[in-house]
Specification:
seven-stranded parallel sheet; binds NADP nicotinamide-adenine-dinucleotide phosphate; 8 helices; Rossmann fold; alpha/beta; 7 strands; about 15% strand
């Protein structure tokens, strides 16, 4: 049976780990040719090998999403290699320091989070959209967070960037609905990834505490988020745009 993304070309930033890797693998499972972009070359190349081993097609593109030249080169690489760009998961992000209150947050970390988590998503849109306009459409999914929908103690900069991604997503959705580019965001709850492990490195009860905050009583898996991203990029979601969608098993409604 043909996959839902047969003959499409998909790009994932932060594709060398966690949810980005899971999305890259599921894009490939659904028949897309995949550009795996990351600052972590080893992780990105490993994702490409996993896709190739499963019979799919992928390349790695080094890109720091906070640098315009890298993002432009990443999109050019996708088009030069595969001829087009149909789907993009703008997912790369960093957590920054955790547990500091708003007035304690360091300047340099504030700037770094804004550059990667917020400007990085905007730069991706800036270079992906012109290519999709040329082709007459496309689908873009940005990664926000539950912290893009509700406040989160000890994560002021992170929550600010993720709320920013939500605003950027809704605005771009309105601007590009007519030319046929869907723009949505996913807002994951607590997901079992290397980022979650880093945040909880000094807290042996971190998983238990986060699980207790999730109505289903457990963390999510990267694949549970990736399946939603891939659905949003498929033709099955053709009347869907501008959603800032919780993928959190009910965390933000609690
Ligand atoms: P992850 O396992 O740390 O994966 C993120 C990947 O992005 C890593 O390979 C990382 O490389 C890469 N990266 C970091 N900075 C980058 C940059 N400037 N340009 C390109 N790539 C960069 O994280 P994850 O948990 O899968 O998170 C993915 C996204 O989901 C992030 O936007 C995160 O904020 C969001 N999110 C996560 C959770 C959660 O519970 N895990 C919940 C809600 C939202 P390095 O490994 O070298 O840093």
């Amino acid at each position: 049976m043909a996959g839902s993304l047969e003959s499409k070309v998909a790009l994932v930033t932060g594709g060398g780990s966690g949810m980005g890797r899971a999305t890259a693998l599921i894009f490939a499972r659904e028949g897309a040719r995949v550009v795996v972009a990351d600052v972590n070359a080893e992780g990105g190349e490993d994702t490409v090998s996993m896709i190739n081993d499963a019979g799919g097609e992928a390349i790695f593109a080094y890109a720091d999403v906070s640098r315009a030249a890298d993002v432009e080169a990443m999109v050019n690489r996708a088009v030069e290699t595969y001829g087009r760009l149909d789907c993009a998961h703008n997912n790369a992000g960093i957590e920054g320091p955790v547990g500091l209150r708003t007035h304690e947050y360091p300047d340099d970390a504030w700037g770094q989070l804004m550059s990667v988590n917020l400007k990085g998503v905007w730069l991706c849109l800036r270079y992906e959209i012109p290519q999709m306009l040329k082709q007459g459409g496309g689908a873009i999914v940005n990664t926000s967070s539950a912290a893009g929908l509700v406040g989160m103690r000890g994560a002021s900069a992170y929550a600010a960037t993720k709320h920013g991604v939500a605003g950027l997503t809704k605005t771009a959705a309105l601007e590009y609905a007519r030319p046929g580019i869907g723009v949505d965001a996913v807002c994951p709850g607590f997901i079992h990834t290397p980022m979650f492990a880093r945040i909880n490195v000094d807290n042996p009860r971190g998983e238990e505490q986060a699980s207790a905050m999730e109505p289903v009583g457990r963390l999510g898996t990267p694949e549970e988020v990736a399946e939603v991203v891939v659905w949003l990029c498929s033709d099955a979601a053709s009347f869907v745009t501008g959603n800032v969608m919780p993928v959190d098993a009910g965390f933000v409604i609690g």
